[in-house]
Design brief:
The structure is a single chain. The protein has about 475 residues and is an alpha/beta fold. Helices cover about 40% and strands about 20% of the residues. It folds into two domains: about 200 residues, Rossmann fold (3-Layer(aba) Sandwich), CATH 3.40.50; about 210 residues, Vaccinia Virus protein VP39 (Rossmann fold), CATH 3.40.50. The strands form two sheets. Strands 3-2-1-4-5-7-6 form a seven-stranded mixed β-sheet, sandwiched between helices. It binds S-adenosylmethionine.
């Protein structure tokens, strides 16, 4: 962006004081608001014609597709954020929903109001980053072809507001540009759209999925539109995940205090067979070396293996990184005895501690890496959340977490073992694919699924992520 003259900044601040939470003026946002106002005024009278021609005459079908995909119940309360001239709001109103369209531009809304022939839609001037509605007020919130028009900070604030005002079991519809898969179309679409959309290159190259997660929106389904140049994402506010759990569609929860006595595989008599099962059923030799390898542990770094069980991974970490200080922690004293015997046999110097995952007996910022293999599927949802908070606490800023655990089945072979395992353990959250959401919620960033492994107990997914730097 071009640097701004002092006069322009002052003018903008007078026009619209965009303040951060600390009360300071945000110059980038000021500039955005000023430009938005200016361009909306010029564009408003022509917007429908321009959009109609750019969508090659498919616009009204596209708007109806959004409504169909949202699949809202009769008479739902719908919010169309950054409604512009109200085309998407009208498509919802046609189906007898109760619709509110908001936009920051009075010029855009003037056009919308002029065209409005429905009694069940009204338009209000409002900023998407500060919606004038109570929490949980709308069944469906929609934002169509507007996110790409926003600078990243505004986009994130708007999405958080959308998540806030949408009912917990409601629906969030995101309609915007995407890149076609075909290389030639991709090239053409990118270079054409960037000619007339100033913020498009940044938007299209950004990770929208990660931003949605960060903003509290869980993606459910997605369809491609405009021959791949656009997409409709259907999501839900993330807290809904917890709600589903409360409503009982998840497995019954176990109290975290009981964790100290949860033996491996949930059955005490199975403890002696733990290694056998991990080797043949969970195929640990395929994923544990991969997990250690992805961490790239430096000499003299401190590593924690949380829920170390019989310490197979703890020993492997130490053998691969003899210079590192490696600690294993587990709640079960019986399994720790087996672990100690194995460490002596392997001739490695590792510390093995007994402790609870939600009260780690270590100071803040004391580890460079925390590993955990096949532990999270033992923990009830709130225990997973508490454990992740503890892990973040004991990691140094920039420290990494490496997890191997059950995840969403990645092919049809993996569905069958998943059906069984989700009943035996607390694996429901895992197989629903919720772990990455929980990692983000706990404050981790750069969460990545590195590999997926087929095992007799279902898909095992390896994740890596980082504690943010200050
Ligand atoms: C390209 S138009 C899209 C309009 C409409 N949603 C559609 O699908 O045709 C983008 C709209 O976003 C609005 N907008 C951008 N930033 C906004 C904000 N922070 N709050 C409210 N509206 C905003 C603009 O005024 C403009 O009307």
């Amino acid at each position: 962006m071009k640097p701004w003259s002092k006069l322009e900044v002052r003018k903008s601040v007078l026009v619209h004081a965009a303040k951060n939470q600390d009360g300071k003026i945000n110059v980038e946002e000021e500039k955005y608001y000023l430009l938005l106002k200016k361009y909306a005024r010029i564009l408003a009278p022509f917007y429908d014609v321009v959009f109609g021609s750019l969508s090659l005459g498919t616009e009204s079908r596209l708007r109806d597709r959004v409504v169909d995909f949202a699949n809202a119940g009769n008479g739902s309360r719908i919010l169309d954020v950054a409604t512009g001239t109200g085309r998407q709001a009208f498509a919802f109103a046609k189906r007898d929903h109760d619709v509110v369209g908001i936009d920051l531009s009075e010029d855009m809304l003037k056009v919308a109001r002029k065209k409005n022939k429905y009694e069940n839609v009204r338009f209000e001037i409002a900023d998407a980053t500060n919606l004038p509605f109570e929490d949980n007020s709308y069944d469906v919130s929609c934002v169509s072809f507007a996110l790409h028009d926003m600078i990243p900070t505004i986009r994130e604030k708007a999405l958080k507001e959308i998540a806030r005002v949408t009912k917990q079991n409601g629906t969030i519809m995101i309609v915007d540009y995407a890149l076609p898969k075909n290389r030639v179309s991709r090239f053409l679409v990118y270079h054409i759209i960037r000619l007339y959309e100033p913020y498009y290159p940044e938007f299209i190259e950004s990770n929208l999925e990660a931003l949605l997660r960060k903003s509290g929106i869980e993606t459910k389904e997605e369809i491609s539109i405009l021959h791949g140049a656009g997409r409709i994402i259907k999501g839900t506010p993330k807290a809904a995940v917890l709600k589903i759990r409360e409503e009982g569609s998840f497995a019954p929860q176990r109290k975290f205090r009981d964790l100290a006595c949860i033996p491996a595989f949930n059955r005490r008599f199975l403890t002696p067979f733990y290694d056998f099962m991990m080797k043949y059923a969970a195929r640990e030799s395929t994923f544990k070396p991969r997990l250690v390898e992805q961490a790239r542990i430096g000499a003299d770094q401190r590593v924690l293996d949380l829920g170390c069980g019989t310490a197979t991974l703890t020993i492997l970490i130490k053998k691969t990184n003899p210079q590192a200080e490696v600690v294993g922690l587990d709640a079960d004293p019986e399994i720790l005895e087996i672990a100690k015997g194995k460490a002596v046999e392997a001739g490695v110097d590792v510390r093995l501690d007994r402790g609870m995952a939600d009260q780690l007996p270590y100071p803040d910022g004391s580890f460079d890496h925390v590993f955990s293999s096949m532990v999270f599927h033992h923990l009830a949802l709130e225990d997973k959340i508490r454990t992740l908070k503890e892990i973040i606490r004991v990691l140094k800023p920039g420290g990494e977490m490496h997890i191997a655990d059950l995840g969403k089945p990645h092919n049809s072979f993996m569905r069958l073992p998943t059906l069984i395992i989700r009943r035996l353990e607390e694996a429901e959250d895992n197989v629903r694919g919720l772990l990455p959401e929980l990692f983000y919620d706990a404050g981790f960033e750069q969460v990545e699924e590195t590999t997926k492994h087929m095992t007799l107990v279902g898909t095992v997914i390896l994740y890596e992520m980082q504690k943010p730097l200050p």
